[in-house]
Amino acid sequence: MAGAEERPFDAGRYPMTRAQWDAMTAVVAELCKYYRIKVTPKTVLSHAEVESNLGIEQRGKWDFTRLPFDPTISGASGCGERLRRDVTAAMSSMPNLPVRIGRDAVWQRLLEELWPIMVRGLEAGLNTLIREILRRIR
Fold it and tell me: What is the pTM of this model?
């Protein structure tokens, strides 16, 4: 929103479009789902909500407090609630991602999958070794 002004509101020459909003909420949804981030006003928020939601002074910085494509939404909290609602909706329509597991669980899973293969390999090798020994001693 280059050239945008908060007060009085002017969306500037390049107002945020619905397509840009939808793309942003889809990316935020993917990140939340992948990293298992619960969607709350303290975890998913715009810069405009940082000061009120997290208590971090913004010294005049502002982010979208109005959505040019939807004039019914205004204010930092209104935009933030819309953001969280749209992110939550996008997450619910996404397929479940594979469970991320820790290093110990990775080793456990690897052993579980490889153990039968290793046993078959050892069995085949042992059978070959026994046949070879029997062939040589005859």
Answer: 0.64
